[in-house]
Amino acid sequence: MSHDNQQTIYRTTPARTGKMMAIMLGICIVGGVIFFAMWDYWISEAPPVVAMMAGDKDLAAPAAQTGKTITQDLVFVESSDFRTLAFNALPGEPDNNPTINMNVGDKIIFNVDNAGKSFHAFGVTKDTEGFGGLIPGSEVASPSNPLKPGESGTAEFIAGEEGTYYYICTVPGHREQGMVGEIIVGPSQGGGSQAAAAPTGVSHDFTLDFVESSDFRTLAFNALPGEDGHNPEIRVNSGDEVTVTSDNLGKSFHAFGVVTNPEDFNSIVMDSAIASASNPLKPGEGGSVTFTAGAPGTYYYICTVPGHALQGMQGSFIVE
Q1: pTM for the whole thing?
Q2: Quick one: CA dihedral 33, 37, 40, 44, positive or negative?
Q3: What domain count does the chain have?
Q4: Do 77 and 124 fall into the same domain?
Q5: How would residue 4 be classed by pLDDT, with cut points 50, 70 and 90?
Q6: Fewer beta carbons within 10 angstroms: which end of the chain, N or C?
Q7: pLDDT per position as a tens digit, 106-118
Q8: 226: DSSP letter
Q9: Can you give the residue ranges of the Plastocyanin-like domain (predicted)?
Q10: Cα separation of 174 and 123, whole Å?
Q11: Residue 216: CATH number of its domain
Q12: Percentages (nearest 5) of helix, strand, coil residues in the chain
């Protein structure tokens, strides 16, 4: 059999190959533009070794508020060439990285707005450099989930001790480019640690009973969320005598205490405990405690059995 008449068969054409290459080139160009436009975002999550060098560490629980409340507006701004970053205004302009002065026990409410074209995040730290050591509760967004241009957020910081703190952009490198300001914390307005007032002779009686939802997922005092009497706010004056009576109306174990931090069941103050996490009230049991209201500030009453405060067994205890 002769094969002289066989013809070469092309699997594609030069025109089709050219189109395919043009499409691939277009995809590469578009992908490159997107990648470099979001460069700050891609580098914002530091490797673990960098975070360790930056000073990441476990921090103490937030302080209790015993002073005044300050509101501070901060806006992320950038120079036209993106080399200089700042809060509120660029260097040399009024209100550039304003210094904040406060006292131990004061609270700052930060209203933070990203008015730039890059990604930013916010936090307060005592570290003199880097982006670690953030005070719990002071963060707005994070390096791995930053504020995009036009976004904003709110955070709080309560000064627990004297010294110099720093508010910064926590995206790696942005502090070094200028996004950092000082918070100068002086002694409490009383000239030292806030002290409780002398006994006033005024007495208060409060009933705070432990209650649970039928599925045990929601816990509360006196009434469940949406019902009258749910986790009532308590206000007393420093030096007042306070008596709290609690009955365990649920089917689980519970205990009571007034704390400085609702997430820390060990931060009980004023000798306010009824039972304890290791020796709680059983279903149907009750107890009471009488104590003197301490230093002015915002405290919290909670169930001190681990996890119960997070499920809803907490309310405000305000000493004026």
Answers
A1: 0.48
A2: negative
A3: 2
A4: yes
A5: low
A6: N
A7: 889 999 999 999 9
A8: T
A9: 97-188
A10: 12
A11: 2.60.40.420
A12: 10, 35, 55
Residue 199's identity, in one-letter code, is: P
Domain boundary (132, 159, 186) is at: 186
Q: Is residue 12 part of a domain?
A: no
pLDDT given at position 44: 46
C-alpha 103/C-alpha 7 separation (Å) is 92
Tokens of 302: 């909670």
DSSP 197: P
Measured distance CA(95)–CA(185) in Å, rounded: 19
Burial class (CB in 10 A: 0-12, 13-18, 19+), 250: buried
131 assigned to some structural domain = yes
Q: List the one residue out of 107, 106, 104 whose CA is nearest residue 187.
A: 104
Whether 253 is covered by a domain: the verdict is: yes
Cβ-in-10-Å burial (0-12, 13-18, 19+) of 244 comes to buried
Residue range(s) defining the domain that contains residue 273: 203-319
Kindly state the tokens that stand for 103: 């006292």
Query: Phi/psi of residue 64, each to 5°?
Result: -90, 145
Q: Tell me the residue length of the chain.
A: 320
Q: With respect to residue 4, please indicate whether it lies within any of the assigned structural domains.
A: no
